[in-house]
Amino acid sequence: MFVLCRKLKSLKSPLKTLNKLHFSHISERVARTEANLEYHQYLLHDSKDDISLLNMVNQLKLNLFNLKSAEKAFFTQKLKCNFLKDSDRGTSFFHALTSHKHKKSFISAIQHSNRALTTSIDEVGAEFVYFLSKPSWHFIVYLST
């Protein structure tokens, strides 16, 4: 176990360097690459026969795709981290989340087969019990939104 911890600690510094080199300020790098690609596409539009310019545009497209994938992964991780941090506490975010789930699964009214609408919680519960005991009974469930 000690050897594993030591190896992981020695790996931390190169990984930090790699992250700084290739993924730091990812949004700014995406914006710069988009601007550079747009500029080169404009130049390619003016001179369509330039093979080196076409290769440069293709390389920039590939680079932009990779940067956007990294940016998406970064923001996905950040969003997941914020969600887990906020939903794990007894915060207003957590209570709003549970309240929304409760409202989403709450049955506010039931319409009988004779088209009578029932909105009372006790009557809705009684109709469910009656429906489950009589399989030929039909009604429509209205979920609150």
Task: Tell me about this structure.
It contains five helices and three strands, in the order ααααββαβ. By secondary structure, it is mainly alpha-helical. It has two domains: 66 residues; 38 residues, no CATH class. It has a three-stranded antiparallel beta sheet. Strand 1 and strand 2 form a beta hairpin. The longest helix is centred in the middle third of the chain and has 38 residues. The radius of gyration is 29 Å and the shape is elongated. The protein starts with a helix and ends with a strand.
Secondary-structure blueprint:
Elements (H helix, E strand, L loop, with lengths): L1 H22 L2 H21 L4 H38 L3 H14 L1 E5 L5 E2 L2 H13 L6 E4 L2
Antiparallel strand pairs: 1-2, 1-3
Helix pairs in contact: 2-3
* Overall pLDDT metric: 82
Dominant shape: elongated
Number of strands: 3
The strands making up the biggest β-sheet line up spatially as 2-1-3
Please, how many helices?
A: 5
Cα-atom radius of gyration: 29 Å
- Tally of distinct domains: 2
Measure the end-to-end span: 53 Å
Strand content: 5-15%
SSE class: mainly alpha
Instruction: Specify the helix fraction band.
Output: over 70%
Largest sheet: 3 strands, antiparallel
The secondary-structure element order is HHHHEEHE
pLDDT < 50 runs, ≥5 residues = none
Question: What's this, in brief?
Answer:
With 145 residues, the chain is mainly alpha-helical. It is built from five helices and three strands; from the N terminus they run H-H-H-H-E-E-H-E. It starts with a helix and ends with a strand.
